[in-house]
TrEMBL record:
The keyword Hydrolase applies. Keywords: Hydrolase. PANTHER family: AB HYDROLASE-1 DOMAIN-CONTAINING PROTEIN, HYDROLASE, ALPHA/BETA FOLD FAMILY PROTEIN. Transmembrane segments: none annotated. The keyword Oxidoreductase does not apply. One of its GO terms (molecular function) is hydrolase activity. InterPro entries: AB_hydrolase, AB_hydrolase_1, AB_hydrolase_fold. This is Alpha/beta hydrolase. It comes from Aeromicrobium ginsengisoli. Pfam families: Abhydrolase_1. Signal peptide: none annotated. Residues 36-268 form the AB hydrolase-1 domain.
Amino acid sequence: MSALTVPSANTAPTLSVEVGRTRFAYREFGAGTGTPVVFLHHFTAVMDDWDPRVIDGLASERRVITFDNRGVGGTNGRVPMTVEAMADDAIEFIRALGHQQVDLVGFSLGGFIAQVILTKEPGLVRRVVLAGTGAAGQDGVGQLNRRMFGDALRGLFTRTDPKPFLFFTRSSSGKAAARAYMGRLQEREVGRVRPTSLRGAATQLLAIRRWGAQEPMDLGAIGHPVLVANGEDDRMLATRASFDLAHRLPNASLAIYPDAGHGGVFQHHERFVPTVLAFLR
């Protein structure tokens, strides 16, 4: 196969696998050797919302799998009402593809899901990256803070996607990074999946609030190697949550990116991707 025909984030076909009554939509591409990397995405996100520079970058060395959880994007069914149920779906999806062990990259809500998978099925996971996320029951996790509420309203009133406000700082470099990121998300021209419905988003928000309100998890029992990453000024989930995760996980390292927010791993993809590849090696 020539370099021009190798599937990438913007050309990989959307496949499906059935688990019970749910037909999971997914894409798979990249190097065929080694432990595959499964991506778990953020609140309201579908497969098309992964930054192609990040997933293509990791696919240069690893097999990458992105998928839509139940009731989201190309996957049928109803959105689960708890993070635990979302994690159960992810576990069943991974098993359905025949994988005995995977690496995980969980961003925001996906980071919550990854933590549950680590506790429920520790043998299924080799290494994990937790980006822009926090622990269950931690102060501020799962709560709608004033800045996040204001940014979401700004997007609503201007009839634009709120991610440039929510994911990036308002400095000149942050605004430029937001424009570049939003442009990259539109690069895939065919085979896009439908966006998350308002009902689905509301159910995800309920699950997020429940995650934040539940009893704290025993993160000290997780012995897996973990890379925690975030921007230094996360408007959605305060960056201190990332410091807390790295402190409480016994085998964790921490990467914090300057002049960056919730989407710091996308803004600084040229630094984040080599860091993740080295960590996964």
